[in-house]
Amino acid sequence: MRHLDNDTLAAFIAVYDHGSFTLAAEQLGKTQAAVSIMLSRLEKHLGQRLLERSRQGITLTPSGEKLIGYARQMQALEEEALTALGCFAAKSRIRIGMPDDYLGTIGAELIEKFSQRNPQLQVEIVSDFSCKLEKLVNDGHLEMAIFTRQPGEQNGEFLRKEPQLWCTAPDCFPEQQITLPLVLFPEGCRARPQVISALDKARLRWHIVCTSSHLAGVQTAIRIGKALTVLPASVIPDDWRILGQNEQLPALQSLDLALLVPEDAHVGTRRLAQFIRELVSAAEALPMQTAL
Asked: pLDDT under 50 in the chain at which residues?
């Protein structure tokens, strides 16, 4: 008897929806090779080709067009069955970690929208540095985490690139000082080493006037001390000045924002993970601030 595995169907759906094995692999938290093997086994199992690859992208074969609708129904039915069996009630609290930077954006959306749509699930947000959040997930103290990856790392599921921009408060011009006054997050922040290295390579003089573990503290120190800092583009206040080459400040490398979800994640955690993917995809359609 032939059976259909839901994880394999999820890979099939992801490849079709993203039009890419690479992007599907990033969403599923798997390697591209693993996703390719899953699709090949599915096609061999069914004895029919499901996808066609060409220069124009990935398209469904007639068999794939028949299966895609059933695959989506089976995913929805699985979640409905787990809900009916009380699986959500058995694990109603989802602890998600994220850096302090994203509490006002992603965190606010989780509280306002996800919690309203899923009142049976209690979302608890834990704020800390990315290096600590990864360990908390791996040790089982968090169900999932949003974090920034070190350059070159591939752990977790890629969400988007986060440009790191120099910025300061309105009517502040700290870049005109001979020694740049900086407000930074403390050691453990993955952007901090890049900031200091870039300044040193550019042979710019700098000193730290304040260190804060919280975004609100950084913003307050900038306003009071008339200093500058580096923040992800998505969290910079709309009225702040974005600085760049015109101010002779060095360009900074973007960091990857990623999602870490264990393979054996509970159905409620998987639902939250999908909400985050959709939230990030929607945000990418909006214009992002860039350096002048």
From this structure: 1, 90, 286-292
Sign of the torsion angle spanned by Cα atoms 14, 18, 20, 24? negative
Distance set, CA 143 to CA 6, 48, 113, 242 (Å): 21, 38, 19, 35
Residue 146 is classified by DSSP as E
Structure tokens at 269: 């955690």
The 10s digit of each residue's pLDDT in 31-80 is 788 888 888 989 988 889 999 888 778 889 999 899 988 888 887 787 77
Instruction: Please list the residues that pair with 182 across neighbouring strands.
Output: 208, 228
123: nearest Cα among 282, 284, 266? 266
* Rounded Cα gap, residues 61 and 180, in angstroms: 59
Cα gap 136→142, rounded to integer Å: 6
Residue showing tokens 């006002």: 104
Taking only the tens place, the pLDDT of each residue in 5-26 is: 888 888 888 888 888 888 887 7
Instruction: Give the count of beta carbons closer than 10 Å to the beta carbon of residue 284.
Output: 12
Q: How far apart are CA 204 and CA 197, in angstroms?
A: 10
Cα 150 to Cα 18, 143, 156, 173, 178, distances in angstroms: 25, 21, 11, 31, 31
What is the side-by-side strand order in the sheet with 157-162?
A: 122-127, 93-98, 144-149, 255-260, 157-162
The pTM assigned to this predicted structure is 0.68
Contact 200, 265 (CB under 8 A): no
Q: Where are the alpha helices (DSSP H) in the chain?
A: 6-18, 21-28, 32-46, 62-84, 87-90, 108-109, 115-117, 130-138, 192-201, 215-225, 267-284
**Strand pairing partners for 93?**
122
SS3 of 95, please?
Answer: strand
